[in-house]
Design a protein that fits this description.
It contains 8 helices and 26 strands. It has a 9-stranded antiparallel β-sheet with strand order 4-3-2-1-6-7-8-9-5. Strands 21-20-19-18-23-24-25-26-22 form a 9-stranded antiparallel β-sheet, covered by helices on one side. Helix 7 runs antiparallel to helix 8.
Amino acid sequence: MKWRTTAVYFLVLLLIGGIYLLLDTKKREAAREEKESRRVFAFDAGAVKEIEIRSGETRATRLTKGEKWRISEPIASDIDSGEFAGFFSALQRIEQERKIGKPSDNLDAFGLNKPSLVIRLLEGSDWLELRIGGKNPAETSRYAKAGEGGDVFMMSSATYDALNLGLRELRRKDLFTWQPDQVSALDVKWRSGDGFSLDRQGGAKQWKSASRPELEIKATKVQNLLDELHWLRAADFVEKDAMPSSAQVEIKLHLKDGQTSELKIADPGQGKKPAIATSSEIEGPVLVASQILDSIPRSVDSLADRSLISAEAADIREITWKTNNGGGNLIWMAENTWGEKEGSAAPRAVEKPWTVRSFLACIESVEYIEAVEPGANPPEGAPNSVRFVDVLGKKSSLAWEGFSSENTGPVTVWMQREGAAREVKIKHEDAQRLNESLAQMSGVTKKKP
């Protein structure tokens, strides 16, 4: 009969579990209904066609929905999608913290006779209205009222802040909508007469200058420029006539679809004041961080490829080096994994692969400051050397003589790549960085000088 007792216990447990689930469901449903009862607006978000926001005595900002939401008054402008999404979400979720009751025509007591914020929205053919007045005595909430005959209730200050957006907050601040990989050419013209033009050729990472076809351009420098322009945002908006007639720099970007996009930036004057700028993609002049002017090259020479090695750091597969601080031979094994190679044995993974990543980042960032013409071959037995093999099996190497901390002049480096040698100069501090990075790598290998 033991199985019957077990079955009874099992049925009792099922009954208790069912009762618990039923009570929990009812509890959740009651909580949902209570939350819904506190909701101020219940509208179909897809049916809303217009929104009007009036803060204090200022002119109302009107948003109109066509193919997308746009500002229609007091100016025509695209909206800041992030700001609008937060505003619309808060509008849908307005809750009554506490119901005060009918105002009894005493709107003065709640600051609703001259509300600090009025929001109206057109759902279908019906206008819904929300008036928000003054703060409660504790200054933690605001008095508000929905519709003509609605009750006065209290809403949180956080909700008020999310709704109290003006023209400045709602206007689109991104100066451009294109992506860097959509740019096929760019023209830069400085008021001083400096400037250059570039065309993307052969692939995403190849750029050429028609005026300097022999110049090898570093693609990452162009990419960095395009990234900075792409992420440029308006810090504020200014009057229509604020933009000077003559810009400090003008940039024209040609896109792969045949469209163009333009940017003009005026001289910010003394100090670190914001600069006035105009973009062909947004309405009116804006203020931008003046530091962008420092990022825009004045000549194509600033974009020249003066890298010490031809391969990108991510494509390096083998590093062999020798310095006064040590040496070693490392093989790429997998992402973020490098192994020490000794003879024909399988590579042994090093414990601190970050030292390799640090060195590769250093070698990728260092550029030579001048080429020595005519150059000489590297001396026999140079105390410092490093050899690279990339993912395609191409080899390149660097060699440099010792240098002292007392002499801070440029350091001579001999570059060997694709069978050609070149003598160049690098900054003293860059040579120190290379030596320090190599010393770190030597510390994770067995091989010593």
